[in-house]
Known about the structure:
- By secondary structure, the protein is an alpha/beta fold.
- The protein has a domain at 7-191 and 218-248 and 281-299: NAD(P)-binding Rossmann-like Domain (Rossmann fold, 3-Layer(aba) Sandwich), CATH 3.40.50.
- The chain is built from eleven helices and 13 strands.
- It has helices spanning 16-28, 66-75, 88-93, 96-116, 151-170, 192-201, 221-234, 251-261, 287-293, 302-315, 317-333; strands at 7-11, 32-37, 56-60, 78-81, 119-125, 174-179, 182-183, 207-209, 215-217, 219-220, 240-243, 248-250, 270-272.
- It has a seven-stranded parallel beta sheet, sandwiched between helices. A two-stranded parallel ribbon has the order 7-10. Strands 8-13 form a two-stranded parallel sheet.
- It binds nicotinamide-adenine-dinucleotide (NAD) and 2'deoxy-thymidine-5'-diphospho-alpha-D-glucose.
- The site of 2'deoxy-thymidine-5'-diphospho-alpha-D-glucose has 21 residues, from helix 6 and strand 8.
Amino acid sequence: MLEAMSSLLVTGGAGFIGSNFVHYVVQHTDHDVVVLDSLTYAGDEASLAGLPADRVRLVVGDVADAEQVDPLVAAADAVVHYAAESHNDNSLADPSAFLQTNIVGTYTLLEAARKHGTRFHHISTDEVYGDLELDDPEKFTPETPYNPSSPYSSTKAGSDLLVRAWVRSFGVEATISNCSNNYGPRQHVEKFIPRQITNLLDGVRPRLYGEGLNVRDWIHADDHSAAVLRILEAGRIGETYLIGADGEVNNREVIETILTEMGRSADDFDHVRDRPGHDMRYAIDAAKLREELGWEPQFTDFRSGLRDTIAWYRDNESWWRGQKAEVEAKYAKAGH
Ligand code: NAD
Ligand code: DAU
């Protein structure tokens, strides 16, 4: 149980979801935050702009660096571990950083949490469960067997299993959450939704992998942050909570919605080379989180959430412009 004014160590807090959580914590609690982030291509100090300096401090460093991690974990009341290599396409091009950060980084933090008795919350993904058929009546539950498909999701699965083992073998006070696809402001333009929005802002047609029938279960990043805070406050140690907002939509429909919201014809996009091993469908059953912890999503209208996200990218070109050319060059090389 967290005290009302605690000190949180948020790893990866300069990335998309981690920075959302830091903003959320500052707005909704009295906790202080130390962000530990190595500012890879995916991390940006600008994502923490406007936050009060007396409550949020950025430490630039690597979660796999035990010497740097140890004193930060010792000083924290709880660690919230977001830092990861997070993009499937990158993991297919070169898996090495995924093993180092996602596996060794999580191991390093767990060892520090064990040594100092620090509460630990591990942020993970629904992708650890593999994928579902389009007509599968079941969704993912905490009991679904692990079956990851990509180098990214297999390293996330490995990190989850480390957390479970450190709870059972060493008594580390940890919880895990596995969330579905997030959208919202400050997401790197390599990801599906911001890539299409910024393509359109640049006068380029959106790019759909394959036929685009793959389904993702979209949740607004603010709803994810609210769920993580709730788990920190009231989650049971050793438990896994699945986070999702019943937001299943296929990729083609997402692109059509973005196009029409941006004043273009719904069929104004290109089909490009599919992702190897591309997971077909993810879907979360969040009953445990809703019933046990009383969490409910606030963003239940995907079109309206997308409209706000489009407006954010339109209004914040200086945030994303520096990422765009390199990302598109990488995609062009991969045939995407
Ligand atoms: P992101 O790529 O936007 O951000 C990752 C952050 O981690 C960046 O700020 C980066 O600089 C930092 N980082 C990377 N390696 C590091 C290292 N070795 N040491 C310290 N910092 C490092 O990722 P995201 O989309 O915000 O995802 C955050 C977490 O949430 C990840 O663990 C991911 O698996 C999980 N997740 C993401 C989604 C999603 O839809 N994006 C859904 C479910 C779970
Ligand atoms: O499910 C949670 C996961 O969601 C997180 O664990 C990952 O960190 C996060 O990146 C995300 O993984 P996906 O692979 O689902 O997200 P991505 O944004 O890369 O792609 C979403 C879907 O859109 C996927 O089916 C591939 C497709 N796609 C992607 C891009 C970049 C396209 O059709 N065109 C594109 O240009």
